[in-house]
Specification:
The chain is α/β, with parallel strands linked by helices. It has one domain: Uracil-DNA glycosylase-like domain (Uracil-DNA Glycosylase, subunit E, 3-Layer(aba) Sandwich). It has eleven helices and six strands. It has a six-stranded mixed beta sheet with strand order 1-3-2-4-6-5, with helices on both faces. It is globular.
């Protein structure tokens, strides 16, 4: 099987007809940001504004996400942002299992290509990829290692717009990210430094 580049993956997504969402979308939304990002954000599905623009998180939830990124000295160009489903479900309904499955090869390849240190899942549908039986209210903000990637489940930014009491929780979870990335980098440096390994032997 030929391994696609990110540009090829994005082109395939824009022309994808693997599920019925291709018939109702205006634009597929592959994702955007740095292709060497340390942090990758994975949401659920495009909404009205994302469908119109072909870009992820450009509505009210996207504005809140931008504000939170700024609070930890990041901007959209330094992270990668995408969704588990690349086309808007009609009426902004929840994505269906077959729609998530149809997009799974795309998200698999995007993660492989970007190879982030940290994946932040935004909402329960992206969270369920790694935590299929968990509740977001129980595990939000708690990082867990999966191979070389640390996954941090978070509420979707839109949750703060519908339920104001969650705003402080989401902001607090976001502020943990720099420390999590720093810890991942420290562990990586330690593995690559033969002197640190030698020191532990004595």
């Amino acid at each position: 099987m030929i391994e696609l580049t990110m540009a090829e993956v994005e082109d395939q997504i824009r022309g994808c007809k693997l599920c019925d969402l291709s018939r109702t979308r205006t634009n597929a939304v592959p994702g955007e940001g740095s292709r060497s990002a340390e942090i990758m954000f994975i949401g659920e599905a495009p909404g009205f504004h994302e469908d119109r623009n072909g870009e992820p998180f450009v509505g009210a939830a996207g504005k809140f996400l931008n504000e939170m990124l700024e609070s930890i000295d990041l901007d959209r160009s330094s992270v990668y942002i995408t969704n588990v489903v690349k086309c808007r479900p009609p009426g902004n309904r929840d994505p269906l299992p077959d729609e998530i499955a149809a997009c799974s090869t795309y998200i698999d390849r995007q993660i492989e290509l970007i190879n982030p240190k940290v994946v932040v899942t935004l909402g329960r549908f992206s969270m369920s990829r790694w935590f299929p039986k968990e509740r977001i209210s129980r595990i939000h903000g708690r990082p867990q290692r999966f191979g070389d990637i640390t996954v941090v489940p978070m509420y979707h930014p839109a949750a703060a717009l519908h339920q104001g009491s969650l705003r402080a929780t989401i902001e607090a979870d976001m502020k943990k990210l720099p420390q999590i990335v720093a810890q991942m980098q420290a562990e990586e440096d330690e593995r690559e430094d033969p002197d640190s390994e030698q020191m532990r032997l004595f």
